[in-house]
Write a structure and sequence with these properties.
This protein has 288 residues and is an alpha/beta fold. It has one domain: Protocatechuate 4,5-dioxygenase, Chain B, CATH 3.40.830.10. The chain contains 10 helices and 12 strands. The chain has helices spanning 17-30, 53-66, 108-117, 132-135, 138-144, 160-174, 203-222, 226-236, 242-255, 269-272, and strands at residues 3-4, 43-48, 75-80, 90-92, 96-97, 104-105, 121-123, 149-154, 179-184, 189-190, 259-267, 277-286. The strands form 2 sheets. Strands 2, 3, 4, 7, 8, 9, 10, 11 and 12 form a 9-stranded mixed sheet that branches. A 3-stranded mixed sheet has the order 1-5-6, with no helix packed on it. β5 and β6 (104-105) form a beta hairpin. α3 (108-117) crosses α6 (160-174) and α7 (203-222) packs antiparallel against α8. The longest helix is centred in the C-terminal third of the chain and has 20 residues, at 203-222. The chain is globular and about 50 Å long. The N and C termini lie far apart (39 Å).
Length: 288
């Protein structure tokens, strides 16, 4: 089977299964996943960050863990990729993606159905881009959903993002797939390293990112407002993958999402104290 090989293992996240499992168990002990809460509901999708596990792995891990179900999950829809508004959406056509826990097979039947209805460029596993927004989630997905297949799609920040998200769910339902949806985006990239310092540097910059710039993007995701999600990312630079977030929201709405929970928020400043830092949010969508 043609397999997309790991490119970030051993640097952005651990290279071995034992090391990955140790990190995951550590993340789950730091703060609980929503499934451990007495108010647990049926979560169908979430937004996760995609920095190295040291910085944002805990949030991503706990969001994905919260999507577990007593029911069999057939397929995970994963939206991500750093893309411009005019970029061409792409999808992994067939084969598998490699993880330290073993490969995740692509749901090629669902991919074919999605591509039959909309214009998304198919890419083979051997020509699929090395992309941290996607790969950083594969070990979590394999760990918490060991028998699920995957659909991996890069989504540009345009109106077409909502079409892709909704179409993917429609075709999954037509195939009677029980799915979960994950969108990958970091929040504001602030500081001299990113050429973005509208309020200077230091603690006042951290507070501005945390309480104003990222808060506006999180509010759009909580309101499930796809147009505003894309506008926030493009105009305020508070999401690096707003297309992925918009596609996820559209997909979750198509599945009947009725409630949103902000699971956690952090910045890399807490880890590094650098003048250049990034925000991370974990959002969950539920049916009730």
């Amino acid at each position: 089977m043609e397999t997309k090989k790991m490119a970030f293992a051993g640097s952005w996240y651990p290279a071995s299964a034992d090391q990955c499992e140790g990190s995951i168990q550590g993340f789950l002990k730091e703060k609980k996943a929503q499934t451990d809460d007495k108010d647990y509901r049926s979560f169908i999708g979430g937004i996760v960050p995609h920095a190295g596990w040291y910085y944002s792995g805990s949030i991503a891990c706990r969001v994905i863990a919260s999507l577990k179900s007593n029911e069999k999950i057939d397929t995970i829809l994963l939206f991500g990729a750093h893309m411009h508004k005019q970029s061409e959406p792409f999808i992994l056509a067939h084969g598998a993606v490699e993880t330290p826990f073993g490969p995740i097979e692509v749901d090629s039947e669902l991919v074919d159905k999605i591509c039959a209805g909309i214009s998304v460029r198919k890419r083979s596993a051997l020509k699929f881009p090395d992309d941290n927004t996607l790969e950083l989630q594969y070990p979590f997905i394999k760990y918490f959903f060991p028998n699920a297949k995957i659909v991996v799609c890069g989504v540009a920040p345009s109106f077409f993002a909502t079409v892709i998200g909704a179409m993917a769910v429609t075709e999954a339902e037509n195939l009677s797939r029980n799915i979960r949806i994950i969108g990958s985006t970091d929040m504001t990239h602030y500081g001299p390293d990113f050429g973005f310092t509208p309020v200077g540097t230091g603690q006042k910059a951290v507070e501005w990112v945390r309480n104003k710039n990222d808060r506006a993007a999180i509010a759009a995701m909580i309101k499930m407002d796809e147009s505003n999600i894309i506008a926030q990312g493009l105009e305020n630079k508070n999401m690096c993958c707003p297309g992925a977030a918009a596609a996820t929201v559209a997909a979750c709405k198509k599945l009947g999402a009725a409630r949103v929970i902000e699971l956690d928020y952090a910045t890399s400043f807490e880890k590094s104290g650098s003048q250049s830092f990034v925000g991370y949010a974990g959002i969950l969508y539920t049916l009730s």
